[in-house]
């Protein structure tokens, strides 16, 4: 798996580019996504996120066949 610190490192690299566009940031409540450090990182930057339950069929196109 990915550690919280590795995930935050990736966020620091990609979030500035992502936020230049009209984008929704969605995560699926895995442990690294809901870690307190990650939640604080988003809050500190005033980034709103949308959460979905893990393995949510409504965002999995194959489920609509």
From TrEMBL:
Gene3D superfamilies: Ribonuclease H-like superfamily/Ribonuclease H
UniProt cross-references to InterPro entries, sorted A to Z: RNaseH_sf
Organism annotation: Oidiodendron maius (strain Zn)
Domain of life: Eukaryota
The name this protein goes by in its record: Tc1-like transposase DDE domain-containing protein
UniProt GO MF annotations: nucleic acid binding
């Amino acid at each position: 798996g990915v550690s919280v610190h590795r995930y935050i490192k990736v966020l620091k690299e990609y979030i500035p580019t992502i936020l230049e566009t009209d984008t929704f940031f969605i995560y699926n409540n895995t442990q690294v996504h809901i870690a307190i450090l990650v939640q604080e990182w988003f809050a500190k930057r005033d980034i709103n996120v949308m959460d979905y339950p893990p393995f949510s069929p409504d965002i999995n196109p194959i489920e609509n066949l």
